[in-house]
């Protein structure tokens, strides 16, 4: 008597469909369409939303989330997560402020903050890839560790004395436009990460790891090394976001960017990245960050309180996760029904 076992294998979605269907009939395109719809409706119904100054402040507000969401997308596609990025923003802010207050040139202080970000990311990567601990537990621990270091270094005080050249640059607009300068490094980074994820063997390895670590390893992908690099990148970009955060608000505090990691993860999941890994695209994540930012800005201008805004944003995130689960279930059911129909068809 032979025992039959059934295994479930996660696979990359079907690519024999035409390109236009893969692009237009996708969760990412739906997020982009929803973003356009919200902008049009808000511009028509919310007083002051369509003003150029509104878009300027909107981009300044979402810039740290946009920056951190780029490496976070790659981390989550592998099936891992980094909850420490918000605390790293605060720690980088404090390092920048403390060294500037001690008399170091701002450029040196910023480089030191980036170094701290890289070390923090490497520490996360070491614990996950070498020690073998789950990333959720590791980064919850380093979330508290980095925040504790930030508060311990500066206490309850704040550093507000920064060179005007840099603080003005952080809030300045590109000549002749209402677009802040922070968009320039973001565009550079989004191109780098998009090419890395979608057009290189390294990026294909990231997807392979998310689908199956063992299969990726047997295919020649350096699983541990890839994850380590991604955690280092997440730390570096979070530190850069911390420097911008400090200059934008002109203040270095130990509690800067508290809770920012939750906004980043919410945007990444809303943008179509699977919490189980193996799926996600950067254009969907960028659209999701902008969607949350536009929605929050429009609701604030309409007089809606922050609590209600959080409820609406949370509900949108839950609907996106539930919707993705329902679509996955429907695809599995269709895949099961297909072979059954073929088997039931009479022979010619």
What does this structure look like?
This protein is mainly alpha-helical and 348 residues long. The chain has a single domain, classed as ABC transporter involved in vitamin B12 uptake, BtuC (Orthogonal Bundle). It contains 14 helices and no strands. The protein has helices at residues 19-24, 27-45, 52-77, 85-101, 106-129, 135-154, 164-171, 183-198, 201-211, 213-218, 223-249, 260-270, 282-301, 306-344. Helix 3 runs parallel beside helix 8 and helix 3 packs antiparallel against helix 11 (223-249). It is globular and about 70 Å long. Residues 1-9 have low confidence and may be disordered.
Unreliable stretches:
1-9
**Which secondary-structure class do the elements indicate?**
mainly alpha
CATH architectural arrangement: Orthogonal Bundle
Helix content: over 70%
**Terminal CA distance:** 33 Å
Regarding CATH, which class?
Mainly Alpha
Beta strands, count: 0
* Shape summary: globular
| Mean pLDDT over the full residue set | 86
Count up the helices: 14
Beta-strand residue percentage: under 5%
Largest sheet: none
Number of domains: 1
Radius of gyration: 22 Å
Order of helices and strands: HHHHHHHHHHHHHH
CATH topology: ABC transporter involved in vitamin B12 uptake, BtuC
């Amino acid at each position: 008597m032979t025992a039959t076992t059934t295994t479930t294998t996660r696979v990359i979605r079907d690519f024999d469909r035409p390109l236009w269907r893969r692009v237009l009939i996708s969760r990412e395109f739906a997020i982009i369409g929803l973003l356009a719809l919200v902008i049009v409706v808000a511009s028509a119904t919310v007083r002051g939303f369509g003003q150029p100054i509104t878009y300027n402040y909107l981009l300044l507000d979402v810039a740290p989330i946009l920056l951190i969401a780029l490496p976070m997308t790659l981390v989550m596609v592998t099936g891992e997560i980094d909850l420490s990025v918000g605390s790293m923003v605060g720690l980088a802010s404090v390092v920048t402020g403390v060294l500037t207050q001690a008399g170091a040139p701002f450029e040196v202080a910023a480089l030191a903050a980036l170094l701290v970000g890289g070390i923090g990311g490497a520490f996360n990567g070491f614990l996950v890839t070498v020690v073998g601990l789950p990333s959720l537990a590791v980064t919850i621990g380093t979330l508290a560790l980095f925040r504790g270091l930030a508060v311990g270094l500066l206490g309850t005080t704040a550093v507000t004395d920064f060179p005007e050249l840099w603080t003005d640059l952080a809030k300045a607009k590109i000549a002749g436009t209402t677009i802040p300068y922070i968009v320039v490094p973001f565009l550079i980074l989004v191109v780098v990460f998009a090419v890395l994820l979608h057009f290189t063997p390294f990026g294909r390895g990231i997807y392979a790891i998310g689908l199956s670590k063992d299969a990726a390893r047997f295919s020649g992908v350096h699983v541990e090394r890839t994850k380590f690099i991604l955690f280092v990148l997440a730390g570096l970009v979070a530190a850069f976001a911390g420097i911008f955060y400090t200059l934008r608000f002109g203040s270095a505090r130990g509690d800067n960017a508290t809770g920012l990691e939750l906004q980043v993860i919410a945007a990444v999941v809303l943008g179509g990245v699977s919490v189980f890994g193996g799926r996600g695209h950067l254009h969907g994540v960028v659209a999701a960050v902008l969607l949350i930012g536009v929605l929050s800005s429009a609701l604030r201008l309409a007089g809606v309180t922050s609590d209600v805004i959080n409820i609406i944003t949370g509900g949108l995130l839950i609907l996106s996760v539930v919707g993705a689960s329902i679509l996955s279930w429907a695809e599995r059911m269709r895949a099961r029904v297909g072979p059954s129909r073929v088997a039931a068809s009479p022979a010619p």
